[in-house]
Amino acid sequence: ISLFGGQITSFRQASGDEVLYIRPDAVFDRSKPIAGGIPLCFPQFGPGAIQQHGFARNVDWSVSDSSADPNPDDREPEVQLLLRDNEFTRSIWPHEFQAALTVNLHGERLRLDFRVINPSSGGTFDFTAALHSYIEVVDVERSAVKYLDKVVSATSPPECEEEGEAVLIQGPVDRVYLDAGEYAELHVGNGAAVALSSHGWRDAVVWNPWTAMPDAYRRFVCVENAVAAVPIRLDPGSGWRARLELYVNDL
Predict the structure, then answer these.
(1) Is 187 a catalytic residue?
(2) Which end of the chain offers a freer environment for a tag, N or C, measured as fewer CB atoms within 10 Å?
(3) pTM above 0.85, yes or no
(4) Active-site entry in 78, 132, 136, 187
(5) For the chain, which domains are there?
(6) Exposure of 128 by Cβ count < 10 A (0-12 exposed, 13-18 middle, 19+ buried)?
(7) pLDDT tens digits, the chain, 251 residues: what are they?
(8) Name one GO cellular component term (predicted).
């Protein structure tokens, strides 16, 4: 976990197999968001009034709690990261907020619980958000995304095929699925699938840039859990939460 961006950069199974993908152009010097793992997009997902995917990916978070603290009461490995508004964030997005990401390991399952609170002293604000998961595959052309509902928005040419319930990627893809349901699988090409079970993330995105990233595109697919189409509105004193659980299934 990187405190810069509050970002998961690795999730390995007990076998040592990596689930997530870090792009070869990723840097860890805080000069720009980390390209890979699970970037957290907030308070904006995609393009819009502020920088692409918001500022949460390129600011420092703090640790507010962890199972390494004294008297852990036999808790599972867990850490809670916290981001509050500050002078920098208010210069970009003029709202008071508190965002918390709780990261928990339950056996071989990675659980992410994301909460946003509007302090009672703040005004009403709207936001969009996403967990921009980069998942490692054997070869993108051997992968398939399953159990997403019908595509309703395509921001790049639809150079992928939907065969029944599977999405096969055969070219650049950037597709938004609205009200996508709470479960999806990415078949990674080696007889295993990464399952994404979620609650509160209404939408989903499948992204692969194809040969625009020649050194990377064959090794990952982004399956992103998002609130993309209809922003969340929080009145003063209210909050919102969503969760995601990642785990590997044998096929």
Answers:
(1) no
(2) C
(3) yes
(4) 132
(5) 40-250 (2.70.98.10)
(6) buried
(7) 999 999 999 999 999 999 999 999 999 999 999 999 999 999 999 999 999 999 999 999 999 988 875 555 566 899 999 999 999 999 999 999 999 999 999 989 999 999 999 998 879 999 999 999 999 999 999 999 999 865 665 554 444 555 556 889 999 999 999 998 899 999 999 999 999 999 999 999 999 999 999 999 999 999 999 999 999 999 999 999 999 999 999 97
(8) cytoplasm
